[in-house]
Every structure is written in C-alpha cells, then in structure tokens.
Specification:
The chain is of the alpha/beta class and 284 residues long. It has nine helices and seven strands, in the order ββααααβββαβααβαα. It has helices at 8-15, 32-45, 51-60, 67-76, 149-163, 175-178, 180-188, 205-217, 227-243; strands spanning 2-3, 6-7, 109-118, 124-132, 138-144, 168-171, 192-195. The strands form two sheets. Strands 5-4-3-6-7 form a five-stranded mixed β-sheet, with helices on both faces. A two-stranded antiparallel sheet has the order 1-2. α2 packs across α3, α3 (51-60) packs across α4 (67-76) and α5 runs parallel beside α7. The chain is elongated. It starts with a strand and ends in a 41-residue tail after the last helix.
C-alpha cells in the first residue's frame, strides 16, 4: 500500500520499522457488550422511549455514556420507536386565544382534564389528571367509573391542603369544569380559573401532552381486569412518571426525582447486565 506516493514496504525499510507496526488492530471497548445489553433491556421495558431518553436512564444507572454512543448501539441493534400519527395543523381563532397564560414557578398554574379507558369487561372508567404546568409533575390521578363536579372539588381540596393553593387553575370547558359549584369553590379558596376556548385543546397543552403519554406508554398496552387493578397500575405509573421517567422539556430529568422503581415487580431499571455500578468503566 502506498502512502503519499511511497510504498509501505520501502518506507518501513528506510525507517527500520517492521511492517506490522502499520497495522492498527481495532480493539473496541470492553464495556460494549454490557452497555448493549442494558440498552436493549431498557428499550424492551419502555417501548415508547427513544434513544435520548434511554441514554438518560443509562446515566441514572451509573453509565458514563453520551447520546451519540447510545444512538450508535440503537441503530446497530435495529431498535426503533413505532411511527406516530402525523402532526396536525392548529386552528387559530380570531380573538387570538392561542396566546395563553404561561407558568412561571411551581404552584403558579395547575391544569386538569379527563381521560377515558375501559376495563376488560368493556365498562368505561374515567381518570381526572391534575398537572403542575411549571414542574410537569402529575399531582394526582383520580380514577372512578363516574366523576362529577363534586369529585373535582374533592380532588382539588385534598391537593390544596397538601400543596397550597395555586395561582391559576386551567381546565377544559366540559360540564364538570364549568359547573357553577366548581367555579365558586375555586374562587372562594383564592385561586383563579382559566378556561380554554372551545375546540382549542392546544391551550391546555401541558395536560394534553401528559394525557397522550399516559395513553401511549400505559393504557394502550395494558388490560385491566378490574377497577382496583387499574388504580394500582396507573398510580404506580404516575410514581414512575414523576420520579424516574426522563422528561425532554426538563433536560431529560424527571419532574420530581426520587428512587421509586416502576413497575413494582421487575428489578431496578437499567441495572448493569455484567457488573455493578461501582465498577462501570468510564467513557473514552
């Protein structure tokens, strides 16, 4: 092989080097097998997570690894997230209602909304989800066959006692939320209501985003044989969402970090496959 017009054999003879010194043997990384195993384990457990969120979970487990290396393994192993539906354009209203109140600190703006699902017997149940828009934390999920205005007041009163009264509460225009009793009660405790415009779900974007993640990552892949089972599994997922799940809008950190595993039965997420965290090799 020629290098810069000089044959390798001649160059080595002149320099007094053996030709084998010009052969670089790729050694690879000693931890590739373990890292690949952990990446596949996490991708299997959290099927709706992409490689960036998987990389964040790996770092939480003790791996010193960057996103590019995880992406390389991701492509090498043929991992992918199933295609989502195409995005839809927004419908802007003449009154400019898309310009909305934005959260500036914790407890500034809460939002809440309903999500419906079914148990195995085909019976519907409803979930009332309450979100702190600034921290992205899911404050609670109330689950029952039917939820009315009185249930909304009951949920909010418990949260007000635990966390204080927020500055604003954003909600849909459904009958449970525009009920006179709910409006009067929220005003009486010192909060302000912020109803979104009809037909404008993007104005309640934080809650809509949470609802879509709940459905995509849990509800679409679970069969609930009873309401009690649904409550236990969904509450466990809420704990995982708040304390472990990397959130892209928060720099791939969870809204309320804590050591709470999810699901309850499997071992801790991303435990190294071949060695413990203390012996993890560093990234080169």
């Amino acid at each position: 092989m020629k290098k810069h017009g000089v044959k390798e054999r001649l160059a080595c003879r002149v320099l007094g080097q053996h030709r084998s010194t010009q052969r670089k043997v790729p050694l690879g990384r000693t931890d590739d097998t373990a890292l690949t195993a952990d990446t596949i384990e996490l991708a299997t457990r959290y099927g709706r997570y992409g490689y960036r969120r998987i990389a964040a979970l790996l770092r939480d487990a003790g791996w010193l690894v960057n996103v590019k290396r995880v992406e390389r393994i991701w492509r090498q192993e043929g991992l992918k997230v199933p295609a989502k539906q195409p995005k839809k354009g927004r419908l802007w209203l003449n009154d400019g209602s898309c310009v909305r109140l934005r959260p500036e600190y914790p407890n500034h703006v809460w939002s809440y909304d309903f999500v419906e699902a079914r148990t195995h017997d085909g019976c519907k149940f409803r979930m009332l989800n309450v979100i702190d828009e600034f921290t992205r934390e899911c404050l609670t999920i109330r689950i029952d066959r039917k939820l009315r205005s009185a249930d909304v007041i009951d949920v909010l009163s418990d949260l007000f006692i635990l966390r204080g009264v927020p500055g604003h509460i954003r909600s849909d225009n459904g009958p449970e939320f525009i009920a006179k009793a709910v409006r009067e009660w929220i005003t009486a405790v010192g909060a302000r209501t912020a109803f979104i415009e009809p037909g404008s779900p993007w104005e309640n974007g934080y809650c809509e985003s949470f609802n879509s993640k709940l459905r995509d990552e849990l509800l679409n892949g679970e069969i609930f044989y009873s309401l009690a089972e649904a409550r236990i599994v969904i509450e466990s997922w809420r704990g995982h969402y708040n304390t472990k799940r990397p959130h892209s809008s928060l720099g791939y950190r969870p809204p309320a970090p804590a050591a709470v595993p999810w699901p309850a039965a499997p071992p801790q997420p991303a435990s190294p496959a071949t060695s413990n965290v203390a012996s993890k090799p560093t990234m080169h």
